[in-house]
Amino acid sequence: MLSYRHAFHAGNHADVLKHFVTIQLMQYLNQKDTAYSYIDTHSGAGVYALDGTFASKNAEYDTGIGPLWERTDMPAPIKEYVDLVRAMNPSGKMRYYPGSPYIADQVAREQDRLRLFELHPADSKLLADNFRKLEEHAAQQGIRPATRGKRVLITRGDGFQALKSLLPPPSRRALVLIDPPYEDKQDYKKVKDTLAEALVRFPTGTYAVWYPLLQRMESRQFADKLKQLQCNDWLNVVLTTNTPMPDGFGLHSSGMFILNPPYTLEPMLKEAMPYLVKVLGKDSGARFTLESGKPMATRNNAVRR
Ligand code: SAM
């Protein structure tokens, strides 16, 4: 079932949470010179036109990047994310929104490796086309012309299946982003099973999973299932922008579950999340939750706002 197209959702509040956290995870890896792999199991198209027919249909960016666009009072990690989006819109008008592969390309260094998987035929072609344009642009600017082909590999295929073949990465350093559509409820189980296998092959990697909070049981139980995985420790951050509609329509809440997070992530989120609640919150239901722990933990911390 491949009906999902991320272009309809580009730049919404879920993308804001996912993308600003991803940037922070990569910036932590950037602190050491040693190369790392960024593996995106569900890449999407890489770049989205916000004035295109898909993105403008429901204008979901109005719940996310839209309200942040003109702000001048952002905490540093949110500003870093918004500045990256602004940089791809040099006219100052919010026209393009970056997907996770574009963000990773901007934040990763010359020596790092991007391994991008996308199953949808149209989106995998768009992803390849978008990276070809980036490569042409880079070549014109004299940036990375020789290494780019090795640096970024795009594969049309099943990211769940492919992940194991890349682990452990040569440098023993990696960030894996797992961001499936979850329209098929099997995705919840596939994420957990894929992570369990990945952690056996590469126990010290950092794994980031985006997930929606929906009415369905698989969604409500998902974070608790991930907490059982055999990692060193985990962190779970959830952003809720509004009280759920009685009909259950619309995405009001989503989370990022990180296995083996850097120690810097939790204090950063404690500072940044209240700002997102303030700017993206729609009603008194807006809040964030942040919890961290260890599998089979004796110690669990929870902060609720
Ligand atoms: N990570 C992207 C971002 O942040 O910009 C968005 C990804 S979108 C939520 C999920 C993508 O996964 C869709 O483009 C969909 O076509 C793709 N997809 C679905 N099943 C897949 C699979 N088994 N392997 C790889 N891609 C898949």
From TrEMBL:
Keyword Iron-sulfur part of the UniProt annotation: no
Positions contributing to S-adenosyl-L-methionine binding: 19, 42, 100, 118, 158-159, 179
Site label Interaction with substrate rRNA, positions: 4
Catalyzed reactions: adenosine(2030) in 23S rRNA + S-adenosyl-L-methionine = N(6)-methyladenosine(2030) in 23S rRNA + S-adenosyl-L-homocysteine + H(+)
InterPro entries for this protein: RlmJ, SAM-dependent_MTases_sf
The protein's Enzyme Commission number: 2.1.1.266
GO terms of molecular function: 23S rRNA (adenine(2030)-N(6))-methyltransferase activity; RNA binding
PANTHER family linked to this entry: RIBOSOMAL RNA LARGE SUBUNIT METHYLTRANSFERASE J (PTHR37426:SF1)
Similarity-based family: Belongs to the RlmJ family.
HAMAP family, per the entry: 23SrRNA_methyltr_J
Function: Specifically methylates the adenine in position 2030 of 23S rRNA.
Assembly with partners or alone: Monomer.
Protein name: Ribosomal RNA large subunit methyltransferase J
